[in-house]
Structures are given as structure tokens and as C-alpha cells.
Amino acid sequence: QVQLVESGGGLVQAGESLRLSCAASGRTFNTMGWFRQSPGAGTEFVAMISWSGSNTNYANFVEGRFVISRDNVKNTMSLQMNELKPEDTAVYYCNGAAGWSQYQRREFESWGQGTQVTVSS
């Protein structure tokens, strides 16, 4: 059974940091990434990373504050979020695709259940 499980969300103040983790089981994904969902902004792409980790892509709103990484031995992916802002408040989801192009076309093969991030001002 393929499963993605996020962890690391929580309540922080503006300017603080959080590190989200995504543990995959049942298979590996060539490209993985993060989306977020909030009532105000809807569903947004956050970041994506290739199998080797040499290719990454971030949404414009990240502005250098987040870093995505992965550990293929452990089959995990992380999102280090720094300088958090209230507008970063959302449920964050990890997902995976068979390749970079598939991810860009949003042809996802699996999603996690999400982890809540709340940033207070």
C-alpha cells in the first residue's frame, strides 16, 4: 500500500521556523513536492524536487525562505520553512509523481493527508 505521511506542522509566531517532513512507504517517487491549501488562497504549489535533489522549483511567494530536500535512503522529503508569515497559514500536503514533467502537469500518483501550519502575527 502506497502511503505518504506528513508531520511537523504546528503553531508558530511570525518570523519563526518549522520543518515539515513527509515519509513515503510502499514505493518511491521520481519527483516529490509540496502543495498547500487555505480558505483564502485555495490550493497552491509550494515546492518540488527531483530524484537526485539537483533540481528544485519554488513558488514565487517562497522568496528564498523555504528549502526542500529529500533522503532517498529513508524515502523521506522535508520542507524547511523559515521567516514564516501569517499568510503561510495553511494545510500542507506532500505528493509524488513519476517524473519532473508529470509533476509539472500535476499528474500526481499519491497525496498525503496534510499537516496544519498556523502562523500568528
Write a structural description.
The protein has one helix at 100-104; strands at residues 3-7, 10-13, 18-25, 31-38, 42-49, 56-58, 66-71, 76-81, 90-97, 108-111, 115-120. 4% of the residues lie in helices and 55% in strands. The termini are far apart. It is mostly beta strands and 121 residues long. It contains 1 helix and 11 strands. Strands 2, 4, 5, 6, 9, 10 and 11 form a 7-stranded mixed sheet that branches. The chain has a 4-stranded antiparallel sheet with strand order 1-3-8-7, with no helix packed on it. It is globular and about 40 Å long.
Provide a short characterization of the protein structure:
This protein has 121 residues and is mostly beta strands. Helices cover 4% and strands 55% of the residues.
Instruction: Estimate the global geometry from the Cα principal axes.
Output: globular
For the sheet with most strands, the description reads: 7 strands, mixed
What is the element string, with H for helices and E for strands? Answer: EEEEEEEEEHEE
Radius of gyration: 13 Å
Give the class from helix and strand content and strand pairing.
mainly beta
Q: Provide a count of the helices.
A: 1
Estimated share of beta-strand residues: over 45%
First-to-last CA distance: 40 Å
Low-confidence stretches: none
Task: Work out the helicity level.
Answer: under 10%
Q: What is the count of β-strands?
A: 11
Mean pLDDT: 97
